[in-house]
Design brief:
The structure holds two protein chains of two kinds. By secondary structure, chain A is an alpha+beta fold. Chain A folds into three domains: 3-80, Ubiquitin-like (UB roll), CATH 3.10.20.740; 84-127, no CATH class; 136-241, no CATH class. Chain A has helices at residues 21-27, 82-98, 103-111, 136-145, 177-181, 218-228; strands spanning 3-8, 11-16, 52-57, 60-65, 76-78, 151-153, 160-162, 189-192, 195-198, 201-207, 214-217. In chain A, the strands form three sheets. Chain A has a five-stranded mixed sheet with strand order 2-1-5-3-4, sandwiched between helices. A four-stranded antiparallel sheet of chain A has the order 8-9-10-11. In chain A, strand 1 (3-8) and strand 2 form a beta hairpin. In chain A, helix 2 runs antiparallel to helix 3 (103-111). The longest helix of chain A has 17 residues, at 82-98. The two termini of chain A are 37 Å apart. Helix content of chain B is 44%, strand content 13%. Chain B has helices spanning 5-13, 22-33, 38-48, 52-61, 81-85, 88-99, 142-149; strands spanning 73-78, 112-117, 128-131, 135-138. A four-stranded mixed sheet of chain B has the order 2-1-3-4, with helices on one face. Classes of the chains: A alpha+beta, B alpha+beta. Chain A binds chain B through residues 138, 141-142, 147-155, 162-165, 169, 171, and chain B through 38, 41, 51-57, 60-61.
Amino acid sequence: MEKITIKINGKDIEALKDQSVLEVARENGIAIPALCSHPEIETQAGSCRVCLVEVSQNGRSRVVTSCNYPVRGGIEVRTDTDLVRRIRKGVVELLLSRTPDAPVIQKLARENGIEGSRFFVDEAEHYRNRCIACSLCTQVCEEVVGVSAISMLDRGRDKAPGTPYLKPSQACIGCGACAYACPTEAISMIDEGEVRKIWGREFKMLTCSVCGKPYIPEAQVEWIVKTTGKDRSFFDKCPDHR
Amino acid sequence: MGIDIRKIDEIIESYDKSEESLLAILQDFQHTFRYVPEEGMKRVSEILGIPESKIYGVGTFYKALSLKPVGRHTCKVCTGTACHLKGAHTLTDIIGRELDIEPGETTKDGRFTLQTVNCVGACALAPVVMVDDEDYYEGSSPQDVLKNLRKYK
């Protein structure tokens, strides 16, 4: 990997070519807010638009999403210019009008000095959820878990993740990776005793032979055994007691 | 309405077994069955090896594809920018009242399905109503549009 030097907020920083600006900044302790970016995902969708920074090169500057902007030698990044702040404020305000109930968005709004959204807030129950339609859940399901049980459905303001035919998905293994990855905690996953409810399906949980705690859906164990060849007995005990 | 599984397979077999054929196959389903049946999407998933979630995602994305059976005729009112300004919404209301349905619904006798679409690419004719994907009507007067709709049995 080619080593290069870039500038972030006036400081010279070493990076590897093709790393994202966001990754380099975070490695060097420079905070950039971001919602839909996840290190395990190969292609950062750049859909939440919160991680905006200003990049200058050859005397020209433009505002880009730092999560999917590959670094090149000689670029100069500024994370906190007036322009970036102003655009980000607008972005967060729009997110707030879509998901006024999401605590993560409310917090982001406060940090960006937004008291309430000037934009129309749809009071219809259907739209009152916490989803910002970033598609991280579907990416995790496809790329990391490898089952593609959910995908983004519809378009425009109706766009949201869902299962095929809006019926319980047969491909789903109940792992809950989508719910854990969701930046706004929009996906409902309920663990009740030995049952996990997610995406309209109920999954039986396997219990740890030492502490007796249900800790993993049986369907997920089957999937791991099938795809990795790991011995089933490995899952007799939960991670705390292995 | 029973869906002929042989017809489904015939359509799928007529294309390359690759992900790129997906949209063309779904369009053929739409054309043949007047909607994209669930059985069809399942078969595409089996034969082309594409996850059902992806196929359903594509099916919900395009307004040209319907996931519910539609009427014998589809009446699409364009609500693109030019048509919107030229009163597409009033036109939709008037047609909806005449047919006694809301956009997205089908008349009880199965004659018409009313839809609103984003742009049919005929902005010079705005506001445009398209029937059965082939007849374009300039909606300069809602009365004319209603008169034209009566031709479809």
